[in-house]
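Hey, weird one. I pasted the CheW-like domain-containing protein sequence into the form twice and got a warning about non-standard characters only the second time. First submission, copied straight from the form history:
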Amino acid sequence: MIGLFGRDGRVFSAVDLSAALGFARGDERSGHLLLMRHAHPRTAFRVDRALALMNVITDDDPSAPPPVAQNLVLSYARPNQTERSNEQRRIALLDADRLIGLFATSSRPSGV
């Protein structure tokens, strides 16, 4: 956890997503916070960049590498055909509930 983040009168735990996935920590002075609005506990992930929201197609390719990062990757996907550029990108689909659970406490503060 890198700190706390407030929005609309609610407090969120701010977590560096790179560090949570086992990569080098990102620059804490830059980046974006992805607010997980319906998560409990309330969580915001700091990321280097947020490129876009897109529709994806699950990649059932048997030659795909196994999920990494402490079993936080559910599967891989590719951009939807209508959103696909010339490059063939693969996208890791993260298990947000499991990822948030890594930072959850066993007891909740009163009034939450």
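That's the output from the first submission. The warning seems to come from a hidden character in my clipboard, not from the data itself. The first strand starts at residue 3 and ends at 7.
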